[in-house]
Amino acid sequence: MTSSDAKAPLLSVRGLRKHFPVRKGVFSTVVGHVKAVDDVSFDVGEGETLGLVGESGCGKTTAGRSILRLIEPTAGEVTFAGETVYAPGVRPSSRDMRAMRRHMQIIFQDPYASLNPRMSVADIVGEGLKVHGLVSGRRELEDRVEELLVRVRLDPSYVNRYPHEFSGGQRQRIGIARALSLRPRFIVCDEAVSALDVSIQAQIINLLMDLADEFGLSYLFVAHDLSVVRHISHRVAVMYLGRIVEQASRDDLFGDPRHPYTKALLSAVPRADPTRKVERIVLQGDVPSPLRPPSGCAFHTRCPAVMDVCRHEFPPLREAGEGHTFRCHLEA
Fold this sequence. Notes:
Layout: E1 11-24, E2 29-44, E3 49-53, H1 60-67, E4 75-80, E5 83-86, H2 94-101, E6 104-107, H3 121-131, H4 138-151, H5 168-180, E7 186-190, H6 198-215, E8 218-223, H7 226-232, E9 235-240, E10 243-249, H8 250-255, H9 260-267, E11 317-319, E12 325-327
Parallel strand pairs: 3-8, 3-9, 6-7, 7-8
Antiparallel strand pairs: 1-2, 1-4, 4-5, 9-10, 10-12, 11-12
């Protein structure tokens, strides 16, 4: 897999927001908004994997699903291969969105909930092929599905089995085969390995990397396990309370983190060397509510380096090198 910095990005996201209304009373009056994603911007190049990390509830999954318009964004712009997916006042037709969705797919987190128990593997994996009219007849459908099962290292004879007959790792491979069925260019991996055993996680990660090499895939890899993200990603974006607080290449982020939140996350990653001393940064308190985010820097309520300015002023975007940006009042 190679990064495509010199070319126009395959996926461009600018100012993405997703605010969920909070309603109360008999008349369902809107009394506030949960700002799940609040002004998120990033690019994903051709053949590139961008890791999107952060604590549970920071908005990673919502961002990924908003990009695909599985949930409608509140504001922002999303373009894919030069085509508008979402923009203010611009709504691609159903025909145009269907054409784009052939090239934009998702692998869901839960390999149990994401597969319909009443459908066979052939119907689950081949559903997209039928919807887009790419197969005619049951025999051709099963042949295509068998090819996909081989690609994800499953026995092609499983084509007529049902989800309850498989383990979690096998189910996730079926989900990957479904995402591959339309030969996409971009896949959102929504915590694709977090529900699996560690040994199975490694197999699935290596499979995803092999498929990316084989098909030239680009990934938005949503995860909270930084060791997994380090293994698969070219670049990493760190989210906190709906915003990206730091973004850099993998080596820059893990070798020279700048934002206090990033440093705290990295300090919690287990080390294989028991003799290596690592200073753990223990964050105090809980993540604030996205319904009422703190003023100024949202991280100031937990930041070990908090200053008075952090409580009142939104932090500027600083650069720490080529492609390495972070939002913090601290310059270093």
